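Methods: holo model generation. Sequences were used as deposited, without trimming of termini or removal of tags, and paired with ligand SMILES retrieved from the corresponding compound records. Each pair was processed once, and we did not select among multiple samples. The sequence and flavin-adenine dinucleotide SMILES for this entry were:
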Amino acid sequence: MTTYKARRTPVQKGTAAWSAILPGQPAPVPLNGDTTADVAIVGGGFAGLSAARHLRLLDPSLRVVVLEAGRLAEGASGRNSGFMIDLPHELTSDDYAGHGDDRTMIALNRKAIAFAGAAVEAYGIDRNFFDPAGKINGAASETADALNRSYGQHLDGLGEANELLDAKAMADVTGSRHYLSGIYTPGTVMLQPAGYIRGLGEGLRRDGVRVCEQTPVTAITRQGAGWQVATATGRVSAGRVILANNGHLESFGFAANRLMHVFLYASMTVDLDAATLAKLGGQPRWGVTPSDPMGTTMRRIDTGQGGNRIITRTCATFEPGMEPAEATLKRTARVHRAKFADRFPHLRGVAMEYSWAGHLCLTKNAVSFARPLDEGLYAAAVCNGLGTTRSTLTGMAAAELALGKTSDVTAHFLGETLPAKLPPEPFSTIGANAYLRWKEWRAGKE
Ligand SMILES: Cc1cc2nc3c(=O)[nH]c(=O)nc-3n(C[C@H](O)[C@H](O)[C@H](O)COP(=O)(O)OP(=O)(O)OC[C@H]3O[C@@H](n4cnc5c(N)ncnc54)[C@H](O)[C@@H]3O)c2cc1C
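and the model returned the structure below.
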């Protein structure tokens, strides 16, 4: 009998701030006892919830159960910076340039954004949590400024709208004099990621999808033509199963030594008072990605999104054990305070209320993993760092594959090669962490 056992289940480090700044959620409802479903989905992030919605759109009669190890919006899907980006944004490249056909990737990313926008509409999700405001790629050095200009030309070539901002325009938007220039692109949707994910979960529940929280899946065992999905509090017998658990795909024995478990770190300030806001200046909402992918992402949110706060995201570590050390959280929180101070010297004394880590899953060759794993078992995994769009797409692809359907989304993922093998341990960890620290150092002021 085929059984895939989970070697480990997720451990989260630091508060899931985006969820903590929203009003409290109702108590979690774990799976309780045995049940049956047409499709069981493991993981309730962008991939899992998108898969659930897509399944029900394709066939409203399907009985769908989502099993999430923690609370909704407290895994990586609620721990990110909330940039739902339409343009190529390849974290493993030096300047985000895509490894493949940019036009195809842009079209797919926009399909994911349209899918999310339709869910926002259908489920009545607060518009503050899905703000089509665009974003800025900020440059703090001459080198980065040159990169931004060549990126602008590349976008011109693709017929993509973009606007170069000078240092004054950047200060007018952000209240910071740190940036020499920026390039604004209008197609990014700025999410309140926890608000969006919770809204998806609530909408799915209202639609009849069973979404169980605090229900880590421990094993998946072949049962007749389908599968039995085991948890500590009950079992689901399902015809088909989708593993939408990102890097924890490997915990079930798939893609071993091919997935890079990278943790990113962020900190969020306290809610800024009126006097601090007056000193800050700038606009009430903006998002700045660094022109070097290993630089620092900054974001300002306002009361509609959980308070007047600034979020600083930087530092990455390679963690094959999928659990960063407390000391790493402390170190990265110190870096966040320093990066914040560089950008906002006039806000000295503003405290960080939350610091946290979140799990990304990358592959060396930048491919995702959305394909059949076994009969009736599908993966919607490997976000490659841009899971707000990519994982929405992997979820859509797995839903279609589970129903025997095909589209440009399934064609894209089935057309990708398999994730490349990583060097053996300990070389992988030592090499990757040395490389990440070097890239961080090289990103300098960015
Ligand atoms: C600090 C930070 C900033 C980021 N910024 C951005 C950004 O601005 N834009 C962007 O696009 N991306 C960003 N990302 C990446 C983005 O968060 C991820 O790509 C995205 O969350 C991936 O979604 P997913 O659904 O594939 O995986 P996840 O969000 O990891 O969801 C998988 C879920 O599976 C659950 N799970 C795992 N194992 C089991 C099990 N055995 N049983 C039950 N459930 C299980 C987990 O608890 C988890 O909730 C950022 C990430 C971090 C950490």
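The radius of gyration is 21 Å.
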